[in-house]
Amino acid sequence: MDDVLRSALRRLGPLSRVESFKREPVATQRRLLRTLLRTAADTEWGQRYGFREISEAEDVVSAYQSRVPLHDYDDIREDATRVRRGASDVMWPGRISNFAVSSGTVSDGKIIPVSEEIINSNRAFSMGVGFNYLVDTFNVQLLLGKHLTLPGRIEEDENFPGTLVGEISGLLAENAPGYFRAIFQAVPNEVSFIPNWEQKLEKIAERTFDMDIRLLVMAPTWALVLFDKLIEVYNRRTGASASTVGEVWPNLQLFIGGGVALRSYRDLLEAQIGIDIDFLETYGASEGFFSFQNELDDPSMLLHLDNGVFFEFVPAEEQYSDNPTRLTIEDVEPGVRYALYITSCSGLWSYDVGDVIRFTSVDPYKILVAGRTSEMLDKYGEAVFGDEARTAIQHACDETGAHVSHYHVTSRTIEDGDLPGHQWLIEFDTEPADLTAFEGLLDAHLQDVNRHYQIRREAHAFAGPSVHVLPEGAFYRWLKATKENISGQTKVPRMSEERDVAEEILDVLGMKR
Fold first, then answer.
1. What are residue 424's DSSP bridge partners?
2. E-strand stretches of 172-277
3. Tell me: the pLDDT tens digits for 382-439?
4. Contact criterion met (CB below 8 Å) for 125 and 302
5. CB atoms within 10 A of CB 196
6. Which residues in 307-327 are b (16+ Cβ under 10 Å) and which e?
7. Dihedral angle over CA of 348, 149, 493, 343, nearest 10
8. pTM, rounded to two decimals
9. What is the 8-class DSSP label of residue 391?
10. What is the DSSP letter of 17?
11. Cα–Cα distance measured from residue 123 to residue 268, given in angstroms and rounded to the nearest whole number
12. CA distance 172 to 185
């Protein structure tokens, strides 16, 4: 009977598409690119680059890459603003009325047009993640209670009447299927969209402390803040002395994380939840939803090749060269870092997402996010990437029993006679007994995985890590003190060659450099 039900689930739309692209990944991506070009052929961008002619080429990928250059936000800013003002058929057919804040603020950030087609694709992606989990585990207990999401805020843009602007998670919540709102949604959107983040978390905790919550979908960083608030509200309202989420929501089954690397926070989440549940990671952005963890025991994520997004990959070391190599899934190799560019059914054409990924497998195509393209320290030729810093932290924690909640790595202030090096501002949930040993473990791991770093250490031209321990809640205090609006997309920057962030944090805390 279980096999019959699993087979029926696999035939549902979102999963049947997954099965299809897994069988024919390269052909799926080529067909998708051709479809996108034909659909947008009569737009301004389509006429500018000759999309119709490209779509008819025998080798559509080569024709596309030879005529359509790589773009970043500065290349589309003017047209995106025109679309916000109501211009039609610019980058994608028709008029677009939804916009996602990719970074910065509504007034001066990167604002990405969000078409109905990409909303539908992202909604199908989310459903597919759930269906895949049910097929994999047959854990129908997930469906017997409420599901709690933590979307960001959206609002009508007063500068562009008739349009909505905000976080992509909020736009998807606004367009959630009716059955989800009626049966599963734990908190109505009017609560989820409360602009003040602390008030929103308080209201959510008040509404859900006595609910049967089975599924959580949210960024791990904000889950930790919500959990503290939830336990506080539960104890205040019931007179209990709970210390874990599992005591409040004993039937919790699954946590789906996105926005930041789940593996960086999983230990903390498991400790705070206190009961055995499953964890899945997804990778999405304002520009689209790209991949999801399709196996519980493998942290890498299956690249979704039929979700309205055509992928290109530029070797990370070539990204800012005059003529970078542009690869498709047909050409990529495991273990190599690639800057990610996408072409989407929202009118983005070979657009720089700003992330670095690496493939763990090419059969099927599975990835890990190595970090933002800005997440690299190379001030002294050390070329340390974000994923290397993250794994160094994990290694040091594993060896010492420490737990890290947040961190920021930057260049160290150099005084007379000092060697260059990195300062690690770390907020520990559990501090190591020996901080010097912790620093040594960071250093040893980076030397193991990074030849540039190792050479500079062996030549005594580069000093080892210097850890500056921050008090509990330090990064949250910094966010509240320096950000006009805090939201689900607000993240702690992990790395910076310049000391601006580090200086701000230390100033807010009144700590020495």
1. 409, 467
2. 213-218, 254-257
3. 878 888 888 999 999 999 999 998 899 998 877 766 788 899 999 999 999 999 999 9
4. no
5. 12
6. bbbbbbbbbbeebeeeebebb
7. -10
8. 0.81
9. H
10. H
11. 29
12. 13
